[in-house]
3,4-dehydroadipyl-CoA semialdehyde dehydrogenase
Amino acid sequence: MSTIELLPNHLGGQWHHGQGAGSTLLDPVLGTPLVRVDATGLDLAAGFAHARQHAGPALRALSYAQRADLLARAAQVLQSHRDDYYAIATANSGTVKNDSAVDIDGGLFTLSTYAKLGQSLGERHHLLDGESVRLGKDPLFQSQHILSPIRGLALFINAFNFPSWGLWEKAAPALLSGVPVVVKPATATAWLTQRMVQDVVNAGIFPPGALSVVCGSSAGLLDALTPFDVLSFTGSADTAGVIRRHAALAERSVRSNIEADSVNSALLLPDAGDEALDLLAKEVAREMTVKSGQKCTAIRRVFVPDALYERAAQAISARLAKTTVGNPRNESVRMGALVSRSQFEAVQAGLAQLQTQAQVLHDGAQHALIDADPAVACCLGPTLLGSRDAGPAVLHDTEVFGPVATLLPYGTLAQGLDLVRRGQGSLVASVYGQAADALRHAALDLADSHGRVHVISPDVAALHTGHGNVMPQSLHGGPGRAGGGEELGGLRALGFYHRRSAIQAATPVLAGL
């Protein structure tokens, strides 16, 4: 019997330990075992039924404003345990303090934002969608579209890179909508998600069963879904394909939101000027190094005018050279580890694939690790690749989920915009320049192939929120290979957890809505 602590799952309003050997979570820098997770033996069908039959009605009995109060109380509880979460992130994700903040404080900020947004909806229990319209000449009989909270549950299958933010950016709008939540965090970094759920559940804020967590294997989770449930998945395109073919979606029409791969871009406009070039170099270096490049929104391709290729390579490389890599417990370290040995090996394999068509401009392998054993630690310095030929497909099709980006030149702006779109749909593209008209044109040109376009000019250098930072007020998601999903965007996020229907009735009936 292992002496490593086994984290409990919460399902059906009760805590349950898995009955199998489970998986041991490791410190990606030290290689030491931390905790175990296991979901073997859980009665998923019964737990899901409890959420639908008990937690759902209890949540829907509350108004939006009342549910918003619960979100605010949950944020307060989480804030009181913030130091514990930072310690877990350091040990389990290998992140430096600033990178842990992106996940932990980002999650708390998103939760608090939805608590405030929910107050604006007041004491209602459903939402109106547009104005009523007459269905004939006589105005007595009209149609009014409404949004009603779903009667099922929301299942979240989350990625390893944001165990806090990935939970709360989905759970906040779901719970505000009156929908119970079951979260299945990625195994490698499940500890932080489990601990946050445990703290909120133990505080007794939400109705029993409104917030559940299943750690370990995902086997059986989709089988337990019924037609009125919804599913939100964040992860690889390969796994997304498997999910889309599952009977829950293909036969039972479970509504799904999917965020998959994304080869995001940064584009420097022609005649952008030295300030814009410096802003681009600064943001590319930041996106490559924050959370060791393990962000679905990180910059993977950097497009610059052909004449500025060398200058851009030097400017980005100079910033990367200052990055200290190693044990996040050392205060001099600015970039920690990849989350696991398998992730480290996947990044190495992706690098090798890109290097068949690109050369190394800044070699991350040359960064000496601080307080970390290279034979054990999953640490890798930031690597900038480049190619004078932007044509090869591998440069646009390969997402290396780590501290890696590729610099590519373009001729005309039209060619540069076409190259950005070769990512086949991305979460975000950022555009750097000075002239408002040129920036506006580029943003509109890229909008249909991206969930978000981040436009940076020198006048907002100190104000912009960052290429890769997902703000709850703006949409997160993207078309094509990015998954075709939408999350956040303020109150727009509630739409996923509601059903739109039309009520056709006499005007006095509709007036009461």
In short: The chain has 15 helices and 24 strands. Residues 97-119 form the longest helix (23 residues).
